[in-house]
Automatic annotation (TrEMBL):
<dbReference type="GO" id="GO:0071949">
    <property type="term" value="F:FAD binding"/>
</dbReference>
<keyword id="KW-0285">Flavoprotein</keyword>
<dbReference type="InterPro" id="IPR036188">
    <property type="entry name" value="FAD/NAD-bd_sf"/>
</dbReference>
<dbReference type="InterPro" id="IPR002938">
    <property type="entry name" value="FAD-bd"/>
</dbReference>
<keyword id="KW-0274">FAD</keyword>
<keyword id="KW-0503">Monooxygenase</keyword>
<dbReference type="GO" id="GO:0004497">
    <property type="term" value="F:monooxygenase activity"/>
</dbReference>
<keyword id="KW-0560">Oxidoreductase</keyword>
<protein>
    <recommendedName>
        <fullName>FAD-binding domain-containing protein</fullName>
    </recommendedName>
</protein>
<feature type="domain" description="FAD-binding">
    <location>
        <begin position="2"/>
        <end position="33"/>
    </location>
</feature>
<dbReference type="Pfam" id="PF01494">
    <property type="entry name" value="FAD_binding_3"/>
</dbReference>
<comment type="pathway">
    <text>Secondary metabolite biosynthesis.</text>
</comment>
Length: 255
């Protein structure tokens, strides 16, 4: 059995470690080309799955319990871990962007934008919200099945507020500058306890994401998918917002 994994995000990387522990052959392909292409930090709350996670990965990995027991740069009681962009201990990047899938009787072939290809017995599509595997399965653009979550978000550190108009082109967030967005967050959190505001106050305006961010939702269960050698995991099959670090935690549990 040889497993192809598209996407080295939380789902794809966890699956790769689980397969390595089981001695199952795999290859993992990632679109990103460098350790700094991801803008935002990640807060993951693995405490409810930590026992299962620790027992499912190979023993040569750093101790998961200790390495997830912090919340930088704040000194809050630890239950979650914050991962900084640009950390040099992130995995290697491949510049392997999946373009197309061919699902045959004796396995699956994947083709990349750089002209290379790979073959395997199954493909696990772990390439996130705008997923190539999903398009292959539903035979129409991925965006056809994505809904918009009515939330306004300023991404630097996540700041959310119910707002059904967020995807409209004339919404103020679509045009607002970085400092304008940060000022809005500081005003909106003015009455929040200072230990929780600190994360916003420490942020320079230049670290706020320029492009507007629209959250998507997806319920693939409602769509009939064909049988074959392509499987979708996590955001590829069920998109989640980042509340309480549940996206990350569910990635570990689902794979
Ligand atoms: C702005 C933002 C902030 C978030 N913050 C948090 C948080 O703090 N805590 C939390 O728990 N959850 C958070 N989430 C949700 C969480 O990121 C997801 O639920 C989780 O990462 C899903 O894991 P995944 O493996 O399915 O996808 P991802 O982690 O998104 O990984 C998909 C990978 O596939 C790669 N890829 C995409 N297309 C291709 C292609 N064509 N070919 C090859 N590779 C490809 C991508 O580069 C990426 O590395 C956040 C989501 C967003 C959008």
């Amino acid at each position: 059995m040889h497993v192809l994994i598209a996407g080295a995000g939380l789902g794809g990387l966890s699956l790769a470690q689980f397969l390595r522990e089981q001695g199952i052959s795999y290859e993992i392909f990632e679109r990103d080309i460098g350790e700094k292409v991801r803008f935002q930090r990640w807060t993951i709350a693995p405490h409810v799955v930590i026992n299962k996670l620790t027992s499912s990965v190979p023993s040569d990995l750093p101790g998961l319990r200790d390495s997830t027991n912090h919340l930088e740069p704040l000194k809050l009681p630890a239950q979650v871990a914050m991962y900084m962009p640009g950390r040099m201990d992130r995995v290697g990047f491949q510049d392997k962007r999946l373009k197309r899938i061919e699902d045959g009787n004796d396995g699956v072939a994947v083709y990349f934008y750089d002209g290379t290809s790979a073959k395997g017995d199954i493909l696990v599509g772990a390439d996130g919200v705008n997923n190539v595997g999903r398009e292959h399965l539903i035979r129409r653009p991925s965006t056809d099945v994505l809904g918009v979550v009515p939330l306004a978000t300023i991404v630097g550190e996540n700041f959310m507020q119910a707002d059904p108009d967020i995807s409209k082109p004339d919404h103020w967030l679509q045009k607002a500058g970085q400092q304008e967005k940060l000022d809005h967050v500081l005003k909106a959190t003015a009455k929040t306890p200072s230990s929780l505001r600190e994360i916003f106050e420490m942020r320079p305006g230049g670290e706020i994401r320029r492009e507007p961010h629209v959250w998507c939702e997806l319920e693939l269960e409602k769509i009939r998918l064909p049988a074959g050698h392509v499987i979708l995991v996590r955001d590829a099959s069920h998109v989640m917002t980042p509340f309480k670090g549940e996206g990350g935690r569910n990635s570990f549990s689902q794979v």
